[in-house]
Predict the structure.
Amino acid sequence: MKTFLLLDFGASRVKTAVLSDDKLFDIRDYEPVKPCVFAQNRFEVDLFGLKNQFLSILKDYSKEYNIDIVLICSEMHGFALLNNNNEPESNYISWKDERCLEKIEGVSSLDLLKQKLKNKFFEKTGMKERACYPVFNLFHMIREDAFKHTSKGCIKGEIKVVSLPEWLACAGGKSLNIAHCTMSAGLGFYNIRTKSFDEEIISAVTASSNVSVTFNRSVENIAPAGFIEMNGKSISIYTGVGDHQCALYGAGLKDNCLSLNLGTGSQAALIGSFDSSNEKRPYFDSKILTVITHIPSGRAFNYYKEMLEKTNPEIDFWKELSSVSLDDINKSDLNINLAVFQSAWNYGRCGEILAFDSSKHSIKNYFASIMKSYINQYFKAIETLVSSNSVNQRFSVILSGGVAKKLPVIKEYFTKFSDFDVIVTNSEYDETLEGLKKLSACII
């Protein structure tokens, strides 16, 4: 019987567990590595800091358990640049980084690459153009270097674009240079139809530069991606998978089910097809997810939390939000726009609070209005997904993620005001860890 170390490198924390004899135990939480570059439109993390954290976690567990295999899921849309020897040429650039919004010679890199691709990006990748995607931020880095005409920190020659799990697979110095398609797709270069990196996108990014872009080979199966020697034995590091897909797998997403995964970010998803007009992502077992991503969630809550703390620091934001009842929501009258980040679904006039009446304003009304606006965005997302996919009239909605567990009024509201069968995952573990546990069954 193999012993697995499971790791979820999420946006807000790192979750770990041991899996042996089909049981999860010794679950731990770690703070994420803090950014080394944190400024407007910039969010970078030191690659060696991430590697050292990974090795430290593995060493700690290896003192107590005979670890055979490491399984990883990770936040998507972050990237790093490596040379041919898998040595860093950049920091880890997070999905929170949006440098491509900055203008060079009067035009942002996001807009310029969209023009160069002539609206083919969605057709090829299944994703709508967003400032957080590596393809746009790498394009900006190449443009920035060319504009500055400097060799300091310059991107040149052949570089490899990798996701976080691909970098971690190099930790032992024995990488097999492969990646799972759920992570490859998140880079923004991957053609979801041909299941390969798209030459037209690559050419658009690197044209008129001295940069050549390569990638690790993308695979659909869970396979060894690297090895590390520890305590006299070789431990296999398997291909890391996307945390969204992993959470859905752990939550038990099936045909005729719709998932609402509510975490730092949130997504609505169902198992769909290429015919859908919505965004698409690779899933497991060669299936396709039809999705709406970047729906405002925990990160947006924290934005309003920080805004409130500036004027009323003694208020406990999450305590107040957790105390909101169905009756409070029904009485609330503020229309609060949670799409405060440019990458967010339905981003428009960020941070609006509409229908404000000072005579009715209260802390309770403020929090209840946040909850109403939060929940209503998912009704719109469900309507959008269902209308463009072949879904039977009766379907189930699976609520998963930390926010769904922290705020039970969400299920109460859906149950009372919808015709859906509403299911909240009741596992005592995070859905991502459950997903990794299920994926371990694919390993012989």
